[in-house]
């Protein structure tokens, strides 16, 4: 490897550290891989030895061919061994990964950061590292401008002295075309399926030249939005909603402060009406939420309960009353919202409070899928309370304690999205083997309308294309005064730029209509998005119509029609 270089400067408040140029020669140039193919490989478990570097290290190349995994160690409380890279390109998608191990501390939150051209450092990945095993970092970044020199370094969040060892470093570039190509390939494999229509007469002879038409009537993949009481009685809004979405979530109407504003005063009339609306249009609905650990979102009368016994009686009445009333109605329940950031109930009822909530909810409505729901897991890696490993650790802790927890909820309140980081976090969460839902997607209102729309399209395309994602919800409940952060339309239901993006993607992700004639084998084949279809076949002035579904599967779906 090249000679280690002493950092010419140190960030304010940090010690000067050793930057290691991990390449034979003077430069690391961002070269495009031959096949341009992304790998979903990730690890959320700690291992005795690091796995080999992804993409053979990508553009991080160690000089010692006998040591391809490239162990590098330093002792520092702040910085660590660093990768110096040159000539990174604007708009290129960079995926970063490595393995980390500690000495001098049993565990610590380690952040991988990128400092381009001596400008401010940004987080590109995190890991809960340990001293007894190797932990995997996976992240990524996109630059706004080309950079001649950039440093990827590792930062200990609490700055306590420790030895950090890094192995199997990898930095792999992808062009935007390669990234989009991979999204489309995953959509083809996971969101679509090939079907062949076989047409025959009553004697089994092939019918050649029959006219075949298929039209999708329902989508398999749930894409929806939050709704509020403003949709009740507003037929134009209702029609606009059901023309687009097959899933819904109530913005505030099921939260405890809405259903029981004072002790014993139960108000379910509004959520009952909203539930009747979605039920009448065959729209699946998520339950949000049973409890919310945020003290500011807790009813005042609940906060005033000073006795743990009184609080326990209140929460038991809440969960039993809510779940009994709506048993079987909601496909999902967010059981204890944002428990990584807040701890109102666990602080007062003990650390097992969340496990008890999940247990009671499971008993009350065993068919509902119970979720964790959290923000800043997927949106950023700068929040130390909700890193991907912190989320996974809490989920494992709850399940180990007996909680029936079967869903990963990611809110998705984005500022400027980091799409390679977003994909890397999804890769790590996918190793848990549970369905992943985006539950509250929006883009910050600090951006103008066109920028919001551009960022929303990036997020939605990445979410829809990832094989571990099972559904997407937008946090765009419409009010006369606007929306939480992002609306799709104005109050008159005229599309905003974000609404144009959603409409365009919804049309792109459905089979509007396909058709043609049966070939010499009496067959017609097409590739369609998963969901329900109407099939119409016409031959010699005779027409037959039937329905079929395209469900997930790798094999061609065969449908036989007799004329």
From TrEMBL:
| Alphabetized SMART domains for the sequence | Glyco_10
The chain positions of domain GH10 read 208-505
Provide the active-site residues from the annotation.
440
InterPro entries xrefs: GH, GH10, GH10_AS, GH10_dom
Task: Tell me the leader sequence span.
Answer: 1-31
* Family annotation (Gene3D superfamilies): Galactose-binding domain-like, Glycosidases
Q: Could you tell me the keywords of this UniProt record?
A: Carbohydrate metabolism, Glycosidase, Hydrolase, Polysaccharide degradation, Signal
Q: State the Gene Ontology terms under molecular function.
A: endo-1,4-beta-xylanase activity
Q: Which SUPFAM superfamilies match?
A: (Trans)glycosidases
Q: Kindly give the PROSITE patterns that the UniProt entry links to this protein.
A: GH10_1 (PS00591), GH10_2 (PS51760)
Which one GO biological process term can you cite for this protein?
polysaccharide catabolic process
Family, per entry: Belongs to the glycosyl hydrolase 10 (cellulase F) family.
PANTHER family documented for this protein: GLYCOSYL HYDROLASE, GLYCOSYL HYDROLASE FAMILY 10 PROTEIN
Q: In its UniProt entry, what is this protein called?
A: GH10 domain-containing protein
